[in-house]
Amino acid sequence: MSVLIKGGTVVNADQSVRADVLCDGGLITAVGTDLEAPGNATVVDAGGQYVMPGGIDPHTHMQLPFMGTVASEDFESGTKAGLAGGTTMIIDFVIPAPQQNILEAYHQWREWAEKAASDYTFHVAITWWDDSVHDDMGTLVKEYGVNSFKHFMAYKGAIMADDEILVNSFARSLELGAIPTVHAENGELVFRLQKELFEKGITGPEGHPLSRPPECEGEAANRAIRIAEVLKVPLYIVHNSCRQSLEAITRARNEGQRVFGEVLAGHLLIDDSVYRDKDFEKSAAHVMSPPFRDKSHQEALWQGLQSGNLQTTATDHCCFCADQKAAGKDDFRLIPNGTGGVENRMEVLWHHGVGTGRLTMNEFVKVTSTNAAQIFNIYPRKGSVSVGADADIVVWDPEATKTISTKTDHQNVDYNIFEGMQIKGSPSHTISQGNVVYANGELNVERGAGRYVNRPPFAPYYDALRKQAHLAEPVAVRR
Ligand code: URP
Ligand code: ZN
Ligand code: ZN
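A: This is the predicted complex of the input protein with zinc ion.
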């Protein structure tokens, strides 16, 4: 089936141009003026609207088994919610339990994701280490299209990666042409602070941010950066929430190191006052890690996006309903960590980014789509409205207004962290694989329509890095 998007302004990362867009066979087949619709084409009137690459959310956790429960949003409901918000692809995470065979975990997640409605791919977490993990990382890169590995520097006693794991896995990533990524929080410090707070009688959600101060994040970000520097491997740091980690990234980038930073829509817009709400349900609904910070960090994060030191925006969509959060009613350490947002990321960033003049439209496209596609090596198949790219497109109505509410959203969670936020600018149509899957408030997409996207390893850039790493080997000193 063909789709002709007519009369809009195509906004890519590099330029904006008045043009029609023709999609056929799942691909973009023409971008130009006055395109003719083939007889059977669906015509989308994009007059007065922007035609942009569909969003890529590089950080989601659909149906994640975590902290004794399973995230309420599954791959079908979560990708449908994403499509309703203009996000046409997610990068989710395979998270093997410690000692679990990582290929087995990978196949388990692939099976769960078969019901996804939009395209998807996976980072794979390295939660333990032995020779089998070393070898299986190779299989994942060479045979299964994985080019990024995730390391949780927090969650001690569960999935935390210590320095030994980081060093082994970062070095292996360089060999394979893959990029390591980290959740940067010092898990030892968090564990100690949690214990101290709890013993002092702080048992409610207000203990959550107190146990995870920005310094813990800054330390871990800097440690991961320095490990990557020594090993000469690029690094991607997920969900930067504070000035301290941004400063570590900025310093490294100024020194020429290839370090990338992600920021969540939530961290840009929500502050830590949410944890002081007396209503347990509300404050627990905001428990996620790293926590929301005091307002001063938000401005720094926006500046990070504006300066290009942070390149991607995500949601860390990981939903738990009130009955699940209640597991931590008497002990904040047991509240399942995670919040949603996959449906709202694009519109809140448009409203608070483009609408306030912090971001240009082209920068908006970069931070919601193109940069993620480039960093994770799927550009220009994704992240671009151009001939030959996948026809994953969002038609954006800059005049549309709405109030975000869990009553009207498609997310399978009983709380929306952006509840009540009034925004201007949202998708009128979402096109996925060349099909109109969302139009004027109605979703029309099949369970299982999404495809797994292979991501090739990085070359030849990594060949050069590997040579440098070799040069850095110790030389014998004559005395
Ligand atoms: O609180 C969060 N972020 N939950 C999901 C797991 C993670 O740390 O990304
Ligand atoms: Zn995390
Ligand atoms: Zn996460």
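The first strand starts at residue 2 and ends at 6. The mean pLDDT is 97.
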